[in-house]
Structure formats: structure tokens, C-alpha cells
């Protein structure tokens, strides 16, 4: 398994509110986490880093060795991150209302477990096909699912950035969890909406399928989003199954 990741401020933002990191637990299981923060001033930066580092630190203390255990753990860990982000926002007026998306994946011997809240996405690229494994927790996706608007209308909807779920809200946060088998040659992609709002799934797939290194694939995805306008922070984490071990 090989991992590459990169984050970029994009062309329109003054700061980068995305955060991405990789952690290993006591059973040597890798957990990759990506977050896209929101909030005025620097509040989004605080929320995304706090959530990722908080979940990651907890993961490092575990010896979880199965996707079933990981899925259960994700719900508890993301709830703890939610509470911590919300409470800090209540304590500091300049951080009030901050929040973040979360998407994370833990890779085991034959399967991977994933969890997410918000509109940061996970994709599987297998045999030249791309599949979105997460469902956006957003207003426009609810409208698409109900048949009120089309996918094409959703892409330009004035409220396309409004989330229906995020980390940093009062009370319980609903976490989507799943596990899937993988095979050699698969690619697992975590991405903030700064990538997926700029590039179509087909373009993302074409770049990942190119015969270039994993780092070059990640760089090309970032560059492609910037070339398309770079309207938001862009963060990409790409895992190649069956690649050279990542240290």
C-alpha cells in the first residue's frame, strides 16, 4: 500500500481551512483522515485541524484490527471530535459556529472501513471505473435525491455549500459508516469539495488511471482543480492498494 496526499489553498481563498493527515494504531493499521473546515476568520482552520488531530491521536492509542471494530469506533471518535469542536466554539466568541466535514478510511488486510460527515468524499477507482462511496450531506444533494433538481442544477445552485450535517454541531452527530473489500490495483481517494466541485468524476478517473507515479497523480488532480478555477481549498489523499509500502 502506498499513500500520497497534498493540500492547496486554491486560487480564490486567502487561507486553507482543509486539513489532512495519516496515523497508525498499535496494530499498525493505517487511518487516513481529511477535513474541510468552515467558519469566519481562522475558525475553519481550527475546526478541521482539531477534529483530524483529535481523532488521529485517539486512533494511535487503539489496537483495533478489524473493520467491524473500526466502524463502531468511528462513531464514538467522531462524536467526541464533534463535542470538542462545538464546546471550543462556545467558549471563544471568535470561533463560534465553526465546524468541519470529516471523511476517513482505515485499511485492513482485506477490507477498508470508512466514515464521513459532510460533503468531503471518498471514491474507489477500480478497473478504470470510478465509484463514489459516500453520500454528500448537503442541501443540494437532498434536493437531487428528492427529484426537485438535477445533478446539473446542483452544480451551480446558489446554496450548494450548505451542509445538512457537520462536525461541530450541538448534540448527536449522525455518522455514515461502511466497509468494503478491496483488491490489488484499487485506488482509494479522499477529497474535499475543492476538487470535486472543479473536476468531474470522469476527469478524476482519467488522471488516476494515467501511467504516472502516485505523487504525480495527486499533483495533477490539484493542478487540474486550480486550472478549472481553484474556487476553494483543494485537498487530495490517494491510496494505492498493492503499491510499495508507505512509511
From TrEMBL:
InterPro entries: PP2C, PPM-type-like_dom_sf, PPM-type_phosphatase-like_dom. Its cofactor is Mn(2+). Its EC number is 3.1.3.16. It catalyses: O-phospho-L-seryl-[protein] + H2O = L-seryl-[protein] + phosphate; O-phospho-L-threonyl-[protein] + H2O = L-threonyl-[protein] + phosphate. GO terms for molecular function: metal ion binding; protein serine/threonine phosphatase activity. Residues 2-241 form the PPM-type phosphatase domain. SUPFAM superfamilies: PP2C-like. The keyword Cell wall biogenesis/degradation does not apply. Keywords: Hydrolase, Manganese, Metal-binding, Protein phosphatase. Pfam families: PP2C_2. This is protein-serine/threonine phosphatase. It comes from Enterococcus canintestini.
Amino acid at each position: 500500500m502506498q499513500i500520497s496526499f497534498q493540500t492547496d489553498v486554491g486560487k480564490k481563498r486567502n487561507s486553507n481551512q482543509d486539513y489532512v493527515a495519516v496515523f497508525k494504531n498499535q496494530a499498525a493499521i493505517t487511518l487516513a483522515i481529511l477535513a474541510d473546515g468552515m467558519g469566519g476568520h481562522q475558525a475553519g482552520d481550527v475546526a478541521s485541524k482539531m477534529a483530524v488531530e483529535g481523532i488521529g491521536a485517539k486512533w494511535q492509542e487503539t489496537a483495533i484490527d478489524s473493520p467491524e471494530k473500526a466502524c463502531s469506533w468511528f462513531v464514538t471518535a467522531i462524536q467526541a471530535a464533534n463535542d470538542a469542536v462545538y464546546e471550543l466554539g462556545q467558549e471563544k466568541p471568535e470561533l463560534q459556529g465553526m465546524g468541519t466535514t470529516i471523511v476517513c478510511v482505515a485499511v485492513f488486510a482485506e477490507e477498508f472501513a470508512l466514515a464521513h460527515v459532510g460533503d468531503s468524499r471518498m471514491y474507489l477507482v477500480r478497473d478504470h471505473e470510478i465509484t463514489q462511496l459516500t453520500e454528500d450531506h448537503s442541501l443540494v444533494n437532498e434536493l437531487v435525491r428528492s427529484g426537485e433538481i438535477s445533478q446539473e442544477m446542483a452544480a451551480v445552485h446558489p446554496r450548494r455549500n450548505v451542509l445538512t450535517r457537520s462536525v461541530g454541531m450541538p448534540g448527536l452527530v449522525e455518522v455514515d459508516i461502511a466497509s468494503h473489500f478491496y483488491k490489488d490495483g484499487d485506488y482509494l481517494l479522499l477529497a474535499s469539495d475543492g476538487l470535486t466541485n472543479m473536476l468531474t468524476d470522469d476527469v478524476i478517473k482519467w488522471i488516476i488511471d494515467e501511467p504516472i507515479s502516485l505523487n504525480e497523480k495527486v499533483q495533477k488532480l490539484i493542478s487540474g482543480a486550480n486550472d478549472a478555477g481553484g474556487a476553494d481549498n483543494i485537498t487530495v489523499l490517494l491510496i494505492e492498494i498493492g503499491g510499495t509500502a508507505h512509511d
